[in-house]
Amino acid sequence: MLQLAEKFLPGKLSRTGFIALALTAAACAALGEPLATAAAASTAGLFLAGMQGNRHRQAAPWPQLRMLFFVTLNLALVAALWLGPWALSHWFYALPLITFGLIPGYFAVAVSAALVAIVLSCTQWVITLPDRHQMVSAFVLTTLLGAILVFLQKYKARQLEPLRRTDKLTQAASREYLSADLHKEIQRSEREGTNLSALVIGLDTHLSDADPDEDIRAILPRIGRYLHSQLRDFDTYYRIADLQFLVILPGANTAEAAKTAEQIRKDLCTLMTSHGLQLTVSAGVAGLNIGDDADSLQISAANALRRAQQQGGNRTQTYSNPVPTDINGPTGFEEAAQ
Q1: Would you say the C-alpha torsion 152, 156, 157, 158 has a positive or negative sign?
Q2: 303 close to 269: Cβ distance less than 8 angstroms
Q3: How far apart, in Å, are the Cα atoms of 230 and each of 169, 197, 250, 265?
């Protein structure tokens, strides 16, 4: 639910804000207020260019458009201090947060300081005394509060960065923790005398070069959600490459892991087809053997996947230990050469 809210709420608010500001710009244009129209339209453009649902918002020309809208908003608000309407001065209170949201830290500080100087200079010459005092105190206060909020957000992100264990795109565990987690599972397996297997799942992108990279990347969050919903509570999965995931299966021998891998592979192929992607999925499986450590087990599973893809993909391959003949379904499991 939390992950759903993180994806849904920003997109919903962006669309709502864009619609409200676009209507405001249209109303101001109808009333003959060019500066108010420019301010509302440029802010609506900021919402549109940074909208959560826009998958390409980090690619050209969207960053350039955001900067264009930001500069237009600043010029319109500064001009409104001299020409009116006076109500636009209240928009300055949101500028520090917008500035820090669009511009890197040190540059944002310089821009915010310049804006404060410009606003204070304008209020000395244009605005009457009571209004000037009210404007200066409110603007300085909101700027300081915005700076404090930005500082706390940056500080919190810096403090939590070492604890972040998930890949932002797929919600899989980060690769940095894989070796340590796998080492712990190997120790537990040896201590308790239980089985342990690892499987690597990869998209066979070489079989479908016609699919655009952005479409393939767009399916990765769904793959992460599928793995999260289908694996056992004590299984863990990691994103180890752009289009590959590794799954640790405690208590599963090679045959059981091969069955799990084949079911996952088939379901993911169905998922690809449902989204119009002509992609297949392969899987490599390796069971823990005497003398294996975290690195060797990962390498064995990766080699099994590589062998499956070299043989045309769309299959599950085991690295060692022949698969029993009582596995249900077609004999699509093969043993990779060590």
Answers
A1: positive
A2: no
A3: 18, 17, 15, 12
Beta-bridge mates of residue 317: 284, 334
Which DSSP symbol is given to 171? -
Residues 6+ apart with CB under 8 A from 306: 284
- DSSP letter at 85 equals -
- Classify the phi-psi angles of 171: left when phi > 0, otherwise alpha if psi is within -120 to 50, otherwise beta: left
pLDDT tier at 160, thresholds 50, 70, 90: low
DSSP codes joined into one string, 21-56: HHHHHHHHHHTT-HHHHHHHHHHHHHHHHT-TT-TT
Identify the sign of the CA torsion 75, 77, 78, 84. positive
Amino acid residing at 297: L
Residue ranges of alpha helices (H) inside the chain are 2-30, 34-49, 62-83, 95-102, 105-125, 129-160, 178-192, 213-230, 254-274, 294-310
Residue 18: which residues within 8 A CB-CB, separation 6 or more?
Answer: 44, 47, 48, 51
The residue type found at 263 is Q
Contacts within 8 Å (CB) and 24+ apart, 96-99? 96/142, 96/143, 96/146, 96/147, 96/150, 97/146, 97/149, 97/150, 98/46, 98/70, 98/73, 99/70
Give me the amino acid identity at 197: S
Which burial class, exposed, middle or buried, applies to 213 when counting CB atoms under 10 A from its CB (0-12, 13-18, 19+)?
A: exposed
Token digits for 8?
């849904």
DSSP state of 225: H
Any residues with CB less than 8 A from the CB of 68 and at least 6 apart, and which?
Answer: 45
Dihedral sign from CA coordinates of 227, 230, 231, 233: positive
Contacts 24+ apart (CB under 8 A), 21-28: 21/47
Q: 212-244 pLDDT, tens per residue?
A: 466 677 788 888 888 888 888 889 899 888 889
Q: Is the distance from CB of 223 to CB of 267 less than 8 angstroms?
A: no
> pLDDT, tens digit, for every residue of 179-203?
888 999 999 999 999 999 999 999 9
- Global pTM reads 0.51
